[in-house]
Amino acid sequence: RLRPFLQELHARLALPDASTTNPATDDMELGGDQGNVPMPGSAKIQPFEFKVLEVCLEHTCKCMESETLALEKEAYPALDKLTSKVSTLNLEHVRQIKSRLVELTGRVQKVRDDIEQLVDDDTDMSEMYLTRKLAFQRVDESSVKLDSNKHASPDHEDEKEEEDSGDDIESSHASSAFVKPDVEELEMLLEAYFVQFDGTLNKLCHVSRMVYINQKIFYDHCN
């Protein structure tokens, strides 16, 4: 299972983005040697970390959906056999299916709940914007270097107090960007996969109910 995932990840990361195909976006980046780090307010480019996240979610979703479909194809005929002919062999087969069903349901439920918890917390989602955080960090570092050069010049000694006040305002504005972060892009990505995992979970719950009903009928018949 790991090889298809790595192949898909490599292929997705190799795709060109807007920064390499549209020269108009070049001026929006932090210099030619800064890598694919868009400035705040620049054209939308899917960050590297979201490309990786999407491939991970997509691969996990496909694997769990495939396991669910395989379990469905095996479970319903096994339940029909148990209904038509009560036997130890048929009952044991259903028990094995139930065990696998519980294990798979737990894994799907865990991923679904983790996504739901993440979507409900804007602060946690903002921490996942690694490219944006790096961009702000580089801007801050550049500002510090520029301010240091200005303050080192005698011509700017009289303006130091006024500039420091301006720096405080700019720092306040930069910090406020993370108070109520823009996480719409990540939120939409997570919600799309939440729906898919939720659908898979519903299928598993339906199979689980059918297993429970058939087992109850069997035990009632035995009693």
TrEMBL record:
Residues 94-121 form a coiled coil. Pfam families: MRS2-like. Keywords: Coiled coil. Signal peptide: none annotated. Residues 16-37, 145-174 are annotated as: Disordered. Residues 145-157 have a biased composition (Basic and acidic residues). This is Magnesium transporter. Belongs to the CorA metal ion transporter (MIT) (TC 1.A.35.5) family. One of its GO terms (molecular function) is magnesium ion transmembrane transporter activity. Residues 158-169 have a biased composition (Acidic residues).
